[in-house]
Every structure is written in structure tokens, then in C-alpha cells.
Design goal:
The protein is α/β, with parallel strands linked by helices and about 350 residues long. It folds into 2 domains: about 140 residues, D-Maltodextrin-Binding Protein, domain 2, CATH 3.40.190.10; about 200 residues, D-Maltodextrin-Binding Protein, domain 2. Helices cover about 40% and strands about 20% of the residues. The chain contains 11 helices and 13 strands. The chain has a 6-stranded mixed beta sheet, sandwiched between helices. Helix 1 packs across helix 9 and helix 4 packs across helix 11. The longest helix has 22 residues.
Amino acid sequence: MPALQHEPSASRRGNTSRPSNLSQLLIVAALIASSAALTVAPACAEPGYPRRPVTIYVPYGAGGLGDVTLRLYSQKLAPRLGRQLVLENRPGAGGGVAAKAALANPRDGYSLFFCGSGMAISMSLFKTKPFDILNDFTQISTISSLDELLFATGASSPFNSVQDVVAMAHKDPGKLTFGSINPGSTQNLTAHLFKQTTGIDAVIVPYKAVPDLITALIRGDVDVGVDYFAGFQPVAGDTRIKIIATTGVRRSPLLPFVPTIKESGYPDFVVKTWQALAAPRGIPDDVLKLLNHAMVEAATDPEFREWLVKYGMSPGGSTVEAQNMAMAQEVEKWAEVIQKAGLAVQ
């Protein structure tokens, strides 16, 4: 079984039921959001937009991978807009502090919100929502995506494939352990989704940080760990860790020898995440189109693309309609996982 340095991939199997009423409602909501942004918004933008710096409200603290990615991307986006981009870090309340700051300003394209697929999880985890990512914001375009999470085990583990993990879990129900960071995180919910998809009985063990999870894997304290490539990167080449599967649509170019869960018998199991920019609903049609065009172009920058690859990411670039639909689908998917897992709503 190849160690981390030899591997790339992707996958996911999820609920195979027909679209529910919730699914239909979310899709309609996404279409309405896109339509409202494109047709119901103010007739035209300020002449010569942008005529002053554009502020992006960031729901994370400075220095994290998402923040660093945005800062590099902003260097590529600013010249295409012809104006400076000001990044304001406003962490807190599951993105609510930054979202409220963006929503407090006029809908003129000068206040944007840095968001991601993780915001879809917040919609179902919190009883009191400081904002509604579907109805308060219009998605503009993606910046980047993490195309897969990795399933890892210790080198001495008997598990060399997803099939091994599932077989053992069915043989000894309740004995298998999955490690992930923070309950309610994408990593944690991916473990829950795997349990629901495969029908196994396993214990999910939360860790405060990825280094703690890696240590537990190496020592054999936990059977399987779930995290992103960037999380496991510090042990790249470490023969004490092996990657047995990824959650993407296709195998990762960074880990070409590692199969996806999708190809391992669960064709509907795919988990990937993305980062994007959104604008408060009501942004003028021409401003939205201008921003989308500039964002798609910025994502093609060679330096930016090269940097993303180092961390297991892919460049973004999407239409307004497709991105609003993607967010609605994420909200639906994780709402179902959270409900089935019986996770406490905060």
C-alpha cells in the first residue's frame, strides 16, 4: 500500500433516494436567488464600476489556508477589476460576523463575502442563524476547490482498502473507530456520511486538531482518519501513514495510485469542498456579470493554479447560476446527514 507521497484520488456515495420535497424547494430557491440577482436587481450599476476599493469580508482569522488562498487570489483579481481589494477578517458566529458586515452595506458590489461549501453545514447546525446563505446572498463564482478528502490508516493497520474497512465493521459492529476534527466539520460529517452510506456501525472520535489525529493513527489509537490533503501533508512520505481512499469524483493527480470511494463500490459517494465569493442579494445585474467574468479570468492565472496544486486544490471558475445551485445542493445534502446522525443543533 503506497504511503502518502505516492497517492491521489477522490470519491463519495450518498443517499440514492429520489429528490425529496426539501430537494425541490432548495433547487427552486437557488433558481430564484440567481434570477433575482440577474433580473430583479437594480437596473444598472454605478457608471465605471468599480470606482473605489472593493471590500471582501472574510469569516476566518488571518493565516489559515483559506485566508492565504484568498489573499493570493485577490492579487490576481484586483488587476482585472482595476481597483484594490481590501480584505477584512471578521471571524466568529460560524461566519455570521463577516456576513452581517457585508449585509450592512449597500448592494452596490463594493462589499463581498468570502464563503464556502462549509456554510451549507451551518444552515442545519444552528437553530439561530445570523444569516441565510441561500436567501441573503448571491453566489458569484468559485475561487478554488478541494476536490477530495483522504481516508488514512496507520501503516501497521490491516486496512488497505475501503472494502477492508467495511468488511471489518460488519464483522464486529461498533468496534471500528473513525477519527476527525471538530464535530460538525466537513471532515466529521464525511465520516458520518460514510457510515450512513455503507450501513456500518462505527464510533466517530473527535480530535481538536489534525496533528492529534495523525498521532492517534500512527499509534493505532484510531482505525481510520479523515482529513484533507493539506491536513495530512506534514506526514507526506512518512511510511507510518497510508492513504487507502479519497472522496473525489476521480483519482487525484497528487495520489494517482489511491482509489476513490466512488470506484470502491459506492458510486454516489463524493465529497469535495470549495471557496467562493458572494454578494448581498440585490447587486446590480451588470456588476454581478462583471465580477463573475473577472473572477473566472483570475482563476486561470498560472501562478495561482500552480500554488493550488501544492495543497491538493483546483482552480475555480463557475457561472452564477451553477454556483447558486451548488450551494443549494450542499445545504440539502448536509442537512440530511446531520438529521440522520442525530447531531445536536446548537
